[in-house]
Amino acid sequence: MTEDIAKLDQDRMIVLSLKPRFAEAILAGTKTVELRRTTPKIEVPTLALLYASTPLRALLGTCIITSANSAPLSDLWREFGSRAELSFPEFKSYFDGVEVGTALTLTQQRRLTRRVPLQDLRAEPIAFRPPQSFAYVDARTGDRLLRMAA
Question: How far apart are CA 79 and CA 84, in angstroms?
């Protein structure tokens, strides 16, 4: 664990917007792969902040992305589908219209001491707006968001 943290990208973090069931599955350790239509431009390992969308609308936890693998959808499902906590029909629906997807491998999941609700995230001075899919935040902003959960 210490080895992974020492190698983390120290300049920025990524915020992943997730359906609440997927955020909870990541934090429970049953979902170890997050599938994306677009490949994030990150160096691995990278710290990810987990934001659960409606109805929770809150920052819930963190994890470390240790790899990002892009592949044709048939390969992606075969290699990572069982670790993504979704059905094949959900997979097909999500990736409709694209031929290649990305699997983010997740480790070291950590639930925050307290959820940080959307109204707190939007408050000044941070005025953070959760992304539709994912967004990059500089380390200073990421640290400020995490301190809100203390």
Answer: 10
> Which residues, including other chains, have CB under 8 Å from residue 99's CB and lie 6 or more apart?
72, 73
Judged by phi (left if over 0) then psi (alpha if -120 to 50, else beta), residue 127 lies in left
Closest alpha carbon to 14 in 53, 63, 54, 83: 63
Query: pLDDT digit of tens for each residue in the chain (150 aa)?
Result: 444 455 665 789 999 999 999 999 999 999 999 999 999 999 999 999 999 999 999 999 999 999 999 999 999 999 999 999 999 999 999 999 999 999 999 999 999 999 999 999 999 888 999 999 999 999 999 999 999 998
CA distance 20 to 55: 8
Residue with tokens 């790899």: 67
- Output the pTM of the full model: 0.93
